[in-house]
Structures are given as C-alpha cells and as structure tokens.
Amino acid sequence: MSKKALGLVLIALACQLPFKVAYAQTSGAELASAGQAYRMASTENRAMSAQTLRRALARHSDAPAAIKAEANFLLGDFALRDGKKDLALKHANQGLKLLEGLEPTFAPDVRAFGARVKTQALLAKQNRLEAFTLILDARLAYGAPKLGPDGAWDKVWDDLYLWQQIAHTELRGGDRAKADVLLATRGAEIAQISQTNGQCDFQHEPLRVVNWESNRPNYPIVPHFANQTGGVLFRLSVDRQGRVTKAETTAFSPSEDFAIMTERVATNWIVTGRRLDQAACASGRPSFTIFQLF
Questions:
Q1: What is the pTM of this model?
Q2: For 141-166, how does the pLDDT look when each residue is reduced to its tens digit (9 = 90+)?
Q3: Domains in the chain, start-ordered, CATH in brackets?
C-alpha cells in the first residue's frame, strides 16, 4: 500500500472514531433513559416500560457496561414482580458478569442493586444461605454509608442492610446457625462499615418495637398472594420515653404501599434500645419491619 493510500485509510479511521464514540454515548443515554422510565412507571404501566427497556437493551449492545448491567437488573426486578424467579436470576447474573470487567470501586450503586436483585431471586428459589452470604458480601463491598451533603441517609446502604435482615429472617435450622457463625467471623468487617465518625456508637443498631402487636401494619394484598416476603427500614427519632417522634423510610420492599402502611402506624410505636437517653443516639436509629409468608 502506498503512503498516500495508507494516509487516506488512517484519515478515514480517524473520522469514524468520533462517530463511534458519539454513537456509544447516544446508545448509553437512550438505554439509561429507558431504565429511568421503568423506575418511574406506575404498576399499570410497568410491563410496557419493561418491554421498552428490553428492546432498548437489545438495540444498544454497544452501550457502557454499567448501563447495560443496570438494565439487566431492572429486567430482573420485573421478572421477580412477574413471578419468574429463574429469569430474574438469569438477568442478575448477566448484569453482574458485565460489571466484572470494571474496577471494583466503579458504579457501587449499580453493583448494590444487582446484588439485591440476585438475593431476591435466590430467596424466591429458596437458596436462603446463598442469598444471605451474597447480600452480606455486597454490604461489605459497598463499605461505610455515604451521607449526602445535606446529611441525608445513604439509602443504598440501608437497602443492603434491609435485605441482609430479610435474608437472615428467611433462614431455617442449620442454615441459620451457619449464617450466625458467618456474622460472628465477619464481625470486625461489619463494625468497620458501621463506623459513625464520632456520633452515637449505636447509630446503626436496630431498635425494638415494644408495642408491636397493637400497632401492626397490614401487608399489601398483591405481594401477600404472590407469597413475597417484604420489609421496611425506618430511621427513627424518639423522645426520652422511647416514643417515636419521626419515622423516615429509607428502604422498602416489595412496594411503596407497604412502606406507607407501615409509616402510618410507626408514630404510635414505643421502642427500646441502647443509649436512647443520649441526644446523639435518639435520632436516625434503624428499625426493621419484616413480614414472612409461609
């Protein structure tokens, strides 16, 4: 090939490169937009949004790996809502595989979401100990809470915390004993990600509701008949007598309806926990409401 011809080829390749980069960026934006539309969809429109997302994922195979991974996780979420646990697990594994080629610290929110979807799928398949181990590993990989500039709670951290509690609640017999041993052996790591930077030493220690039986929320009908376990994590503020003065929902499953129902009764709760007599320990304390269906 002559130097002139080689130069023309290089110029042509150079012209194509910006186009490919721009196309990949556009593909990523369109796929991300489809994912956002799914997240915001109402119950009535969720199936249509999932179909749109599925088509966008097939069309934009050159989108960034993290965006494709999140799309898979969202499709896994829809599969779980649709009672298709094997399909949900397939999507979760596909998404996690896409993330393997990225730096471990890249896209922590997406990784956490993927771990949560896979945990749900494993629980649906009754692989309880595997689910518990996975979500515990995901919590430790995510690390300490990342508070917002306005002091808002890290809802990703709380979501992982909620699913660890749900998975532990689902354990039976020997599996629960193994999980408790695992918690004990990894206690130092759990303490490390629960540091409070000089705040209350018990900031992430759950409070117990003492008047639960008279203030029990109703479980939504749809997940009840779908045999879906659910839960809500609140960050509570209390007075010196343990009465709840404020309840902020930071994580919930399977639906916002459950969170709303629980929040309605939470302000009637009386709770107990360590160091509630200290002002620093009387706000932002977690409390879990978890329902099991047998």
A1: 0.86
A2: 999 998 777 778 899 999 999 999 99
A3: 202-294 (3.30.2420.10)
